[in-house]
Amino acid sequence: MTEKATFGAGCFWGVEMRFRELDGVVEARVGYMGGEVDNPTYEQVCRDDTGHAEVCEVTFDPQRISYESLVRAFFELHDPTQVNRQGPDVGRQYRSVIFSHDAEQEAVAARVKAELEATGRFSRPVATAVEPAGTFWQAEDYHQQYLARRGGSCAL
Fold first, then answer.
1. Is 11 a catalytic site residue?
2. Domains and CATH numbers, the chain
3. Whole-prediction pTM value?
4. Most CB atoms within 10 A, among 15, 78, 103, 120?
């Protein structure tokens, strides 16, 4: 039986590529979550017209990889101290966010975030939000496995 996890960590192309590399991840697809508009388009999200974040929805086998391992991988693949941006990508759509699918995921995400903050690893506070998952709107087909189809590498 598989479970879902949803993460926003900047441009979704690199996030998807990195999660696909993890043993136990069955599927990763990119899309939008956390906004106010049904069926948002990439253009709307990029203009910040909808409030959505670019996200990667991860389907995983909890017998092979734990949700906590996914959360820890999420924190390693981006700078969680940046507010509404990742590198050159700026806007709410690029915010650092974990969308929890149940109370257990919310507790794990909050605990791992607090542990990371307590390490003193970062000079700024961890800005990652932990929010309840809403509707996942799958991004347009040309965004799915974008980097893999172009022989690109992950810049994260």
1. yes
2. 3-149 (3.30.1060.10)
3. 0.93
4. 15
